[in-house]
Prior knowledge:
alpha/beta, 15 helices
Amino acid sequence: MKKNILITGGAGFIGSNLALKLIEKGHTITVLDNLSKQIHGDDPENTSPLYGSIADKVNFIEGDVTSAADLKKAIENQDVIVHLAAETGTGQSMYQIARYTDVNIGGTARLLDLLANSKHQVKKIVIASSRSIYGEGKYFSEELGYVYPGHRTDELMRSGDFEVKYPGCKKPLKLVATDEESKIHPSSVYGITKQNQEQMVMTVCPTIGIAPVAFRYQNVYGPGQSLSNPYTGILSIFSTLIKNGKEINVFEDGKETRDFVFIDDVVDATILGIEKEEANNQVFNVGTGVATEVNTVVSELLANYNMEVPVKISGNYRLGDIRHNFADLTKISSTLGFDPKISFEDGIKRFANWVNTQAIQRDKYQQSIDEMKQKGLFK
Length: 379
């Protein structure tokens, strides 16, 4: 059944790819986006490839989720809302606290307030949650069974001890996949805002006759993601450094891991959430279920670009960063039939091939590091 679908933040990386796929399937798409310069550059309407990919294919509203008037205009005649609009980046969130809270929590609150207090035809909301709400991942202790370690301390990391600890455990902890029932304990302001967004949507929507679905996305990457945003996206950040011939500073010991999930798989999972009734009132992880070391990311990128730059494993660290987290996909696989199709090796090759077609971006990464140093968050 064809639907009118609003995507907030729909000119962004996930949103634009999702919009194009939904249009292919016959749905009518409206996008509400403020064309943030951090993502789209100084002249988005002329130079942003993400915006350019959807500009003439959707009903585009340049506006902001912090504006009730913009939201009211956007939700008119919509059947489904995919709420992606958010400030992203764990590091930046630790010192732009009001901004992250206003946009992520405040924008979601305004959206729900409008839906609760006005006439509309919205039947479902899909909210973009995040693996960041888990904080550190799930571990197995020989002494205590499954445990959920808290934030790593400045003192231990300063000494070069980056692995997570848990009180009462003397033997090393074994990392296991994080399932949806795992402890929620975010270690950054960004994670806190995503937890709040998810909980508000999952709590309010059933009381006003709207079916909620939440997707806890892992680290999403692929062709089209911003190469100029120095605050988020490790593959983009490293790629821009490599293309500029600059040294890559690998934080900690490079053995920290993430679950990198390709954009096409994320889009497919999200569409299952939109179209399947079985998704209603459920929360799902979206990832690959594979933990990949940062050292592997660096070596794969250098190999795919056939370039050499200095690589320094520095022992630097950012307060608020997690050590490990990868997704347990049992629930989304059994409930929605989702299984990721793109391996990291294949995905990074596709990503690198795309980067090779792009103009080399000015490297702004050091600027973001300097900001964190000034705030005492980068060591």
